[in-house]
């Protein structure tokens, strides 16, 4: 209905089909429209009119706006201050319910621009709900509880042969079982690793999923997981892998990099203190993984899990993840940098596949016995 109305009006105001109408005519359309528009879209329409340097409004840009898709040129114009919004900032709104206050909190935690925050606040809905990170976390907890009860051990489970025999663990002897490059994320060394990953997945992953959607965040998380196991198979060829740290570090590094690059615009409280705390915790987790890999505290039948998945996840987050988080409500397919990153990731995947097929035998790697 909205698109039909706009098309008819545009046909009247743009009889020559140039794709543009004069700002004066468009202003009249906005002020006398007969549509039920939410406050965010109405703000955007007025912003589109104000201080337009060309004196024209593009039909395609209007259609994208009414479809809840903002073009990059429109967002850049707002960011550069050429188009301003008239309403007060989101923090000044009162009388909000518990859920709306939580949505506002998420907006200020994740998004660096007031325009984006108010857009998200008015556009937000629970369809689809942010279930991906919650489901992953629940499965990880259930799997850990099952092995904890079975082994009667809640820390350093990788020292138990029965734990390493699991078909979910990535082990170089079983690298032809492709699912292990994904399934290792459900297994954890102990309660400390599970608690760290689950906490970050819920505190950072769920808000990111609420803002950027299940498709983008699940893609980022799984890219970190796959990159983690493949990197281990290349750089630490004798080591197994457990834990969802590749995906967790992809999310966290992307979010932290986004905060740093938009430092002035971020309005989350105590951001410097929280940034330092996050970096210390993430570095400590990597240090713990390095210590367990090279100085195991208990006798073991083979190498302990590698720490390279953490680093690979961080690289995915800083590259692919940062672009995703900076492209809120923008099409990734229209950005050249997205295709460059995607091509690089696919190239890495192909190289890793060939490496796993041929390199182990060519290099004569002495693999530990299968658990």
From TrEMBL:
<keyword id="KW-0645">Protease</keyword>
<comment type="function">
    <text>May be involved in regulated intramembrane proteolysis and the subsequent release of functional polypeptides from their membrane anchors.</text>
</comment>
<feature type="transmembrane region" description="Helical">
    <location>
        <begin position="214"/>
        <end position="234"/>
    </location>
</feature>
<keyword id="KW-0378">Hydrolase</keyword>
<dbReference type="GO" id="GO:0006508">
    <property type="term" value="P:proteolysis"/>
</dbReference>
<feature type="domain" description="Peptidase S54 rhomboid">
    <location>
        <begin position="177"/>
        <end position="326"/>
    </location>
</feature>
<keyword id="KW-1133">Transmembrane helix</keyword>
<dbReference type="GO" id="GO:0005509">
    <property type="term" value="F:calcium ion binding"/>
</dbReference>
<dbReference type="InterPro" id="IPR022764">
    <property type="entry name" value="Peptidase_S54_rhomboid_dom"/>
</dbReference>
<dbReference type="InterPro" id="IPR002048">
    <property type="entry name" value="EF_hand_dom"/>
</dbReference>
<dbReference type="GO" id="GO:0016020">
    <property type="term" value="C:membrane"/>
</dbReference>
<keyword id="KW-0472">Membrane</keyword>
<feature type="active site">
    <location>
        <position position="310"/>
    </location>
</feature>
<dbReference type="InterPro" id="IPR035952">
    <property type="entry name" value="Rhomboid-like_sf"/>
</dbReference>
<feature type="transmembrane region" description="Helical">
    <location>
        <begin position="181"/>
        <end position="202"/>
    </location>
</feature>
<keyword id="KW-0812">Transmembrane</keyword>
<dbReference type="InterPro" id="IPR011992">
    <property type="entry name" value="EF-hand-dom_pair"/>
</dbReference>
<comment type="similarity">
    <text>Belongs to the peptidase S54 family.</text>
</comment>
<feature type="transmembrane region" description="Helical">
    <location>
        <begin position="306"/>
        <end position="325"/>
    </location>
</feature>
<feature type="transmembrane region" description="Helical">
    <location>
        <begin position="276"/>
        <end position="294"/>
    </location>
</feature>
<feature type="transmembrane region" description="Helical">
    <location>
        <begin position="131"/>
        <end position="150"/>
    </location>
</feature>
<protein>
    <recommendedName>
        <fullName>Rhomboid-related protein 1</fullName>
        <ecNumber>3.4.21.105</ecNumber>
    </recommendedName>
</protein>
<feature type="active site" description="Nucleophile">
    <location>
        <position position="245"/>
    </location>
</feature>
<dbReference type="Pfam" id="PF01694">
    <property type="entry name" value="Rhomboid"/>
</dbReference>
<dbReference type="InterPro" id="IPR017213">
    <property type="entry name" value="Peptidase_S54_rhomboid_met"/>
</dbReference>
<dbReference type="InterPro" id="IPR051739">
    <property type="entry name" value="Rhomboid_IM_Serine_Proteases"/>
</dbReference>
<feature type="transmembrane region" description="Helical">
    <location>
        <begin position="337"/>
        <end position="358"/>
    </location>
</feature>
<feature type="transmembrane region" description="Helical">
    <location>
        <begin position="246"/>
        <end position="264"/>
    </location>
</feature>
<dbReference type="GO" id="GO:0004252">
    <property type="term" value="F:serine-type endopeptidase activity"/>
</dbReference>
<keyword id="KW-0720">Serine protease</keyword>
